[in-house]
């Protein structure tokens, strides 16, 4: 498998996914869409970790452990973020990030 | 064999990048969430191609099974009626796109291609004996790592999940006295039908009734 695909190809896919996720997190106005962009970025990082594990240190378990922990943290982040979105919607009756600017100086 | 793997990798890369582009560009949020599920599936298949079976299964369980359902629930609970302004526009859009393209083209790609990754050379078959099999850490090693070397981190992850669960409940909890009653679609239809004769139809804007849950996200202000 490592002979067929160079490491750079996998990293390129992850880099593209990260940049698309960054664009989604910055450009979309809906809070849930912003969270989707963040999830895409976390997935890109995970692809990188698994690729480095597979190509550079396939005999050790560290890379996979890191990926598992990132999945755990992403799940916690999604749960808390969506709870906050629902709480914000209840208070401000909006799910647009531009309308929630009460902390703006 | 190599050609087949390259073909599968190309298809998966196209699926991942294409559905990610759809996630950030499509107007309807529900459609974006469905494209996100496709993207997660593609990433899981890529893990499978990279021979990380456990992570592929965890990806499908956690991302496809849990997070996407959570996102769909949040979309439906906030009842977003997506207007024309679903994305930033004008110079903000230009700056955002520029930042992302510059990050990709000026930072990531040159780094990936100029850095020398110390990829160990593939095992070559010496004449007389076949190539030695590659040692690959599997699920067994992962489980052993979690029980022995990474015990503390494992426990901390458990505590983190518990705290996140409690925190999510506390944040999203609503006291019974303050709870608004969300109307069903049929009731909302009734309310709107009752309101319609009272209002001149030329304005084209519906009035928010005191009991009715708001339909739009306040963008008309």
Automatic annotation (TrEMBL), chain A:
Q: Where is the protein situated, by its record's location annotation? A: Cell membrane; Membrane
Q: What is this protein called?
A: NADH-quinone oxidoreductase subunit K
For the keyword Translocase, the answer is yes
Entry's transmembrane regions? 6-27, 34-53, 65-89
Q: Which HAMAP family match?
A: NDH1_NuoK (MF_01456)
Which InterPro entries does the record associate with it? NADH_UbQ_OxRdtase_chain4L/K (IPR001133), NUOK/Mnh_C1-like (IPR039428)
Q: What is the lineage of its organism?
A: Bacteria, Bacillati, Chloroflexota, Chloroflexia, Chloroflexales
Which family, according to UniProt? Belongs to the complex I subunit 4L family.
Q: Which organism is it from?
A: Candidatus Chloroploca asiatica
Extract the Gene3D superfamilies matched here: 1.10.287.3510
Q: How does it sit in the membrane?
A: Multi-pass membrane protein
Q: What does this protein do, in the record's words?
A: NDH-1 shuttles electrons from NADH, via FMN and iron-sulfur (Fe-S) centers, to quinones in the respiratory chain. The immediate electron acceptor for the enzyme in this species is believed to be ubiquinone. Couples the redox reaction to proton translocation (for every two electrons transferred, four hydrogen ions are translocated across the cytoplasmic membrane), and thus conserves the redox energy in a proton gradient.
- The protein's assembly and partners: NDH-1 is composed of 14 different subunits. Subunits NuoA, H, J, K, L, M, N constitute the membrane sector of the complex.
TrEMBL record, chain B:
As for membrane topology, the entry says:
Multi-pass membrane protein
> Where in the cell does this protein reside?
Cell membrane
Classification via Pfam families: Oxidored_q3 (PF00499)
Transmembrane regions? 6-26, 33-50, 56-78, 90-113, 152-173
Q: Which reaction(s) are listed as its catalytic activity?
A: a quinone + NADH + 5 H(+)(in) = a quinol + NAD(+) + 4 H(+)(out)
Q: Does the keyword NAD apply?
A: yes
Primary enzyme class: translocase
> What does the record give as EC number?
7.1.1.-
Q: Which UniProt keywords apply?
A: Cell membrane, Membrane, NAD, Quinone, Transmembrane, Transmembrane helix
Gene3D superfamilies, sorted:
NADH-ubiquinone/plastoquinone oxidoreductase chain 6, subunit NuoJ
Q: Which domain of life is it from?
A: Bacteria
Span list, region Disordered: 186-221
Q: Which InterPro entries match?
A: NADH_UbQ/plastoQ_OxRdtase_su6, Nuo/plastoQ_OxRdtase_6_NuoJ
What family does this chain come from, according to its entry?
Belongs to the complex I subunit 6 family.
What role is this protein assigned? NDH-1 shuttles electrons from NADH, via FMN and iron-sulfur (Fe-S) centers, to quinones in the respiratory chain. Couples the redox reaction to proton translocation (for every two electrons transferred, four hydrogen ions are translocated across the cytoplasmic membrane), and thus conserves the redox energy in a proton gradient.
The protein's name is NADH-quinone oxidoreductase subunit J
């Amino acid at each position: 498998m490592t002979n067929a695909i160079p490491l750079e190809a996998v990293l390129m896919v992850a880099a593209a996914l990260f940049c698309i996720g960054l664009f989604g997190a910055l450009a979309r106005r809906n809070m849930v869409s912003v969270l989707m962009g963040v999830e895409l970025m976390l997935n890109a990082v995970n692809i990188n970790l698994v690729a480095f594990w597979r190509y550079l240190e396939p005999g050790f378990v560290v890379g996979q452990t890191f990926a598992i922990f990132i999945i755990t943290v992403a799940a916690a982040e999604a749960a808390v973020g969506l709870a906050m979105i629902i709480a914000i919607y209840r208070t401000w009756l909006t799910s647009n990030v531009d309308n929630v600017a009460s902390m703006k100086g | 064999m190599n050609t087949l793997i390259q073909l599968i990798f190309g298809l998966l890369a196209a699926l991942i990048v294409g559905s990610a582009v759809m996630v950030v560009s499509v107007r309807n949020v529900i459609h974006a969430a469905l494209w996100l599920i496709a993207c997660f599936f593609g990433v899981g298949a890529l893990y499978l191609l990279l021979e990380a079976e456990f992570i592929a299964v965890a990806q499908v369980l956690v991302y496809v099974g849990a997070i996407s359902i959570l996102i769909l629930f949040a979309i439906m609970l906030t009842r977003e009626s997506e207007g024309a302004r679903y994305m930033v526009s004008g110079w903000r859009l230009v700056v955002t796109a520029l930042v992302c393209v510059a990050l990709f083209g000026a930072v990531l790609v040159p780094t990936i291609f100029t850095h020398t990754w110390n990829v160990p050379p593939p095992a070559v078959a010496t004449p007389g004996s076949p190539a030695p099999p590659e040692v690959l850490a599997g699920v067994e090693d992962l489980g052993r790592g979690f029980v022995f070397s990474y015990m503390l981190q494992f426990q901390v992850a458990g505590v983190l999940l518990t705290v996140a669960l409690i925190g999510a409940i506390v944040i999203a909890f609503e006291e019974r006295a303050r709870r608004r009653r969300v109307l069903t679609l049929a009731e909302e239809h009734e309310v709107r039908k009752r309101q319609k004769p009272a209002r001149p139809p030329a304005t084209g804007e519906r009035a928010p009734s005191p009991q009715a849950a708001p339909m739009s996200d306040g963008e008309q202000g």
